[in-house]
Specification:
35% of the residues lie in helices and 30% in strands. The chain has helices at residues 10-18, 21-33, 48-58, 69-79, 93-96, 99-104; strands at 41-45, 64-68, 108-114, 120-128, 131-140, 143-152. The protein has a six-stranded mixed beta sheet with strand order 1-2-6-5-4-3. The relative contact order is 0.18.
């Protein structure tokens, strides 16, 4: 049975077709925004441009990226409201759905720091329309955790 795109904009339809996991990301984020305490871990397979860039920046092959309910709670707490005072825009659950685009179709990626345990952090930037989305991942053994997401005008 074909996917029904009732009430979706053309842009949302394109996102859903290219990144089917985006809807799951948004649904879980909405659940977190509504106060759910459920434990969740969502994974993305790393391929193409993203895989090559992570190999270049980290010096190791990363197969999977993941985000947890705790990461989404962090995003909500740190970037979900009051961002105008920092020159940023409040993140919403729908923005969480954009994580696959920000990571797979990034404009720039750079190593920003290495913590005392040797975990490297990578900052990805992607302009979508008039907004710049920034996502940070932290490397583990063959995996990377999506630690945060914020957006600026």
């Amino acid at each position: 049975m074909p996917i029904q795109y009732i009430g979706m904009t053309d842009k949302e339809k394109q996102l859903a077709e290219k990144y089917p996991e985006a809807a799951i990301f948004a649904a879980i984020a909405e659940s977190v925004w509504q106060g759910s305490k459920a434990t969740v871990k969502m994974e993305l397979q790393v391929t193409g441009k993203l895989r090559a860039e992570l190999q270049r920046l980290l010096g190791t092959d990363v197969h999977t990226l993941f985000v947890t309910d705790s990461d989404i709670r962090h995003i909500k707490k740190q970037h979900g409201k009051g961002e105008a005072s920092r020159g940023q825009i409040d993140v919403t659950p729908d923005d969480i759905a954009l994580i696959p685009i920000v990571l797979n179709e990034f404009d720039t990626a750079e190593h920003t720091e290495t913590d005392r345990r040797g975990n490297k952090k990578i900052l990805f930037k992607k302009r979508i329309d008039e907004t710049v989305y920034l996502a940070t991942i932290e490397r583990g053994p063959h995996k990377g955790e999506i630690r945060t997401l914020w957006k600026t005008p």
